[in-house]
Amino acid sequence: MRINLQNVEHKYQVNTPFERAALTDVTIDIPSGTYLAVIGHTGSGKSTLLQHLNGLLQPTKGYIQVGEQRITAGKKEKNLKAIRKRVGIVFQFPEHQLFEETVLKDICFGPMNFGVSEEEAIRLAKESITKVGLGEEILEKSPFDLSGGQMRRVAIAGVLAMQPEVLVLDEPTAGLDPRGRKEIMDLFYSIHKDSGISTILVTHSMEDAARYADEIVVMHKGSVFERGKPRDIFSRSAELAELGLDVPNTVKVQLMLERSTGLKFGRICLSLDELTSEIAASMKRGDLS
Amino acid sequence: MMDKLIFGRYVPADSAIHKMDPRSKLIMVFLFVFVIFLANNVVSYALVAVFTLAIVKLSKVPARFLINGLKPVLILILFTFLLHLFFTKEGELLYKWNVIEIYSGGLRQGIFISLRFAFLIVITSILTLTTTPISLTDGLETLFNPLKKWKLPVHELALMMSISLRFIPTLLEETDKIMKAQAARGTEFSSGPVTSRMKAVVPLLIPLFVSSFKRAEELAVAMESRGYRGGEGRTKFRLLRWERKDTYLVLAICILGILLIVFRT
Question: Which domain, by its residues, includes A258?
Answer without folding.
Answer: 248-289
